[in-house]
Amino acid sequence: MLGLNYKLRDLERSGKEIRVGLIGCGQMGRGMISQIENMKGMRVVATADLYTKFIQQAYLKAGVKEQSIILTDRIEEAEKAIEQGKVVGTVDSDLVTSLPSVDVIVDATGIPNLGAEIAWKAILNKKHIVMLNVEADVTVGPLLKQMADASGVVYTGSAGDEPGAVMELYDFADAIGFEIVALGKGKNNPLNFEANPSSAEAEAKAKGASPKMLASFQDGTKTMVEMNAVSNATGFLPDVAGMHGPSGTVQDLPSLFQLKEEGGILNGKRIVDYVNGVAPGVFAIISSEKEEVNHEMQYLKMGDGPNYILYRPYHLTSLETPLSVARAYFHKEATIAPWKGLQAETVAVAKKDLEPGDRLDGIGGYTVFGKLFSYSEASSINALPIGLVDPNVVVTRPVKKGEIITFDDIEQEKESMIWKLRSLQMQSTKEKSVKGTPGKSNLILV
Known about the structure:
oxidoreductase activity; Rossmann fold; NAD(P)-bd_dom_sf; 3 domains; Type Iii Antifreeze Protein Isoform Hplc 12; NADP binding; SAF
């Protein structure tokens, strides 16, 4: 099978290209536009953002001439521009998901509700969808994947994002028959459950990042969500609520991730976790019971056994997203998807004492952070998934700082798209459980 680089070159030689529609022109989206402009056989032909000046700047920095950037909210004008080799900027995300000439949609908004709506509409328009929105994926990804399968398109997470990078190691180790003990990622800042946009503002400004986004990394929510996606893809579970999160070097990890009776920290195997001290890398802890395999691994200087580490010291975030775009287009395959369904849940925990009438302001805000549980444990206490948190959600009874917020503690003033999809997902799950037909979609797509 030809590599993606050869397939892209061949596509360009034939006078064609993969036409990408991007929604969200923040840091991730801008980087992706520039990277794809360097590639053969692919182009971001349409981009949506609330601020068209961001779109113009992104295309200009990527080397697109100003006269080739057409700003419009009219589908006929957008289609004509694309056919003429120009690119389109718009404030209307629906325009991008509905453009007939667009092959693959990329969601780079980072907003769970918006990402869920974008994926839903992309699939209804029979377009492949690549999610850089892990928060939406862990909340309603199983439903979106069912929809995509039924529509004959690909629903996928992104290469370069940490879950996708972990999945590469998992696929490699699983394919050649290693036992996989643990999957994980590094965390590059101290865990601070109280982090918020105000406390993160100075560092965010120095880094040119969003304070809210940075706070979501500092308070651990992003780490929980990312390993949640790995859990839903592989069936691996957090060994303890919130994961262990030890500190260590790459060399420490094979001995750390052993069972407690063997001197490690684990209660069981096939777990997800994170480690302070190995960022920005991702890892898989593997082992084998075969004497010859262990001999070979030791000869290859992979360690003394019985555990060994596969470690990737980088992930290039949205710069690698085009690989997922190409894989979906050429091979109709996902980089990572919730193949196992809801295995884990990142639940909302109060950052401060909350009183009736308080609104939950979302991921990276002032009111909640996320903590990873197994899905069975989270559902048994009726815990509120972090992806359902938004300003429409109001607290109805006191919740102490550090307590898990449950559905019994809140009400929603207006039902958002992600809440509707979550309800459909839970209904579908219950129906399949009753009928005993796993893998069959009970959804009717209109």
